[in-house]
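Weekly modeling sync, notes
Attendees: S.R. (lead), two postdocs, one rotation student

Agenda item 3: backlog of single-chain predictions. S.R. asked that every request posted to the team notebook include the full sequence so nobody has to chase files. The rotation student volunteered to paste the first one in as an example of the format we agreed on. Action items at the bottom.

Example entry:
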Amino acid sequence: MNLLLCKDFKYSPAKLHSGDGLEINADLHIHSRFSGATSNNMRIATIAEQAPLKGLHLVGSGDALHPAWLEEIRSLEEVDEGIFLAGDTRFILTLEVEDARRVHHFIILPSISAAEELREKFGKYSVDIEKDGRPHLTLKGEEIADLVNDVGGLVGPSHAFVPWTSIYKEYNSLRECYGSAKIAFLELGLSADTELADTIAELQDITFLSNSDAHSPWPNKLGREFNRFKLREVSFTEIKRALLRQKGNRIVLNVGFDPRLGKYHRTACIKCYTHYELEEASKLKWRCIQCGGRIKKGVRDRIHEIATWDKPHHPEHRPLYLRIAPLAEIIAQALKVSNVYSSRVQNLWRKLVVAFGNEIRVLVDVDTEEIAKVGGEAIAELIRRFRVQDFEIIEGGGGKYGEIIFTKQAKKRKAVKNQLSLDNW
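Predicted structure, as returned to the notebook:
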């Protein structure tokens, strides 16, 4: 079975140096402060400081076509082909664009010169490429992919199943969007995982990415999903080979949300978040019977519509998938604090990750008796319960994230309107 729960998995930290090559943890899809609805704290120095605390070695730059952001990246030391160093964190040039049909595409580039060339090409089809870190283009998916391939970049669909800006909200197949153009990967998004996506036959040969799409550098966003790469060195060429599964390079682990925690997992009203079965929503003509709001089709139901099989068919190359949740949210529940940004939560989060190396080790590997010595018995107990899946989940939908509940009364609770944690992406 390719999908793992925490109780099945012994985490070992990735290493930047190894006799058999390198293993690195990489969150490739983030945004800078130059994208809309993004924290002003999305600055290189802050991202570089936070990434190691999450257990990340490599982070996507995001917004690599934005002139001001690209200049900041240019000021960094280029330590290998297309790889830039800030503190202990490496960055690779990445960006996201929106096409003429509101489909988002994720792009990885080999060099600053390639970014400048692509900006010139895209600039003919965009009115905001100099202003918005995620520019809007009057191009089709196939045209975007061809231009990216022309400059030596890599491209694939962003968060492929979400109901607003994804390939599968608009098309029923990759070919309908990209035609004959080459794509290198598919990004799962927070509301889907390997278990769901591998029910679709056309994705059997596609490499999956699990990235955070973070709009903020804080611990419940940056690195909330990431990938573990096996490489010979950290460079664009080696990353490309891993995505194409060439010369022994590959992704060996996808790490991400339980998809039920994703904010578009279930079909639900975007106003009051009432959940609906697909057939019921269709009969209601996609209007909520509770408040009259619009009902949005969830990722789970959309995947079921286009699935080839009822059960996943994991190809031999598919890496393991480890389900995690933000440590800050677990700490907040243990402290009975509603705000994950409170100083109590943030201070204790930092204390734990500094003591044990990074967040992922605290979540899935460090002995809970040791955690109790640093963070207290309440936190240690909830982490233990998380590892053995002793919790309930209020599923996300309609734009509201799901929630882990460590109480036996969880099934009786109803989703509340205010989301207390996890930023929108």
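Discussion: group reviewed the output briefly. Residues 327-412 form one domain.
Action items: rotation student to repeat for the remaining queue; S.R. to check formatting next week.
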